[in-house]
Amino acid sequence: GNSVTQMEGPVTLSEEAFLTINCTYTATGYPSLFWYVQYPGEGLQLLLKATKADDKGSNKGFEATYRKETTSFHLEKGSVQVSDSAVYFCALRTGNQFYFGTGTSLTVIP
Amino acid sequence: NAGVTQTPKFRILKIGQSMTLQCTQDMNHNYMYWYRQDPGMGLKLIYYSVGAGITDKGEVPNGYNVSRSTTEDFPLRLELAAPSQTSVYFCASSFTDVTGPYGYTFGSGTRLTVV
User: Fold this and answer.
1) Helix and strand totals (H; E) in chain B
2) Cβ–Cβ < 8 Å for A40, A87
3) Which residues in chain B (13-32) have CB-CB distances under 8 A to chain A?
4) Is cis: bond before A40, omega within 30 of 0?
5) Which of A96, B1, B33, B63 minimizes the number of CB atoms within 10 Å of its CB?
6) What whole-number distance in Å separates Cα of residue B49 and Cα of residue B32?
7) What would the pLDDT profile of A91-101 be if each residue is shown by its tens digit?
8) Range B20-27 average pLDDT
9) How far is the alpha carbon of B41 from chain A, nearest alpha carbon, in Å?
10) How far apart are CA A36 and CA B38, in angstroms?
């Protein structure tokens, strides 16, 4: 079946620290991979995506590379800011359906 | 553009009551979806629709009903509310082409508590 596993939180970092949130997936076929961000009281917003192996998605300083050999799509940012505090969801799309991970809460402290 | 609009934002129901969660999108998206988000469980797909008049079950459809009479609206109906339906509900919409859905947009959610 299709599923996404991401590291459990919560994660607390100091401002300007390096961020990694791990995400691995299981899928039939060739899925597209996504990272969504959810700020408090809001819906999910697309952060970045990659549609095929070795693609790198990037946005707002965040990056993730589609690694088919390790079935991973880890999210990274070199220097986090307080405004990055949110819940991050890894997701895969196969066909017309999305499958979401459980979310990782990130808090960045000044 | 308003995007995806959900109402109400919060609701408390008693066991056995019924209600409809409203969802409207103004982007002319053909696909629409309902998800529920439980703590530590991620999002689970309840129902989705590929166009007006067409709906399909997702992972967790039991206890819910949907209809899609227009492109814009995709209401979710709870007929006999149960405590297990306490959750945050998100509506979403997207375009789709031969590669699949794109332009996926979420509403801001409805927090439902069943007591």
Assistant:
1) 0, 11
2) no
3) 31
4) no
5) B1
6) 5
7) 998 877 788 89
8) 96
9) 5
10) 16
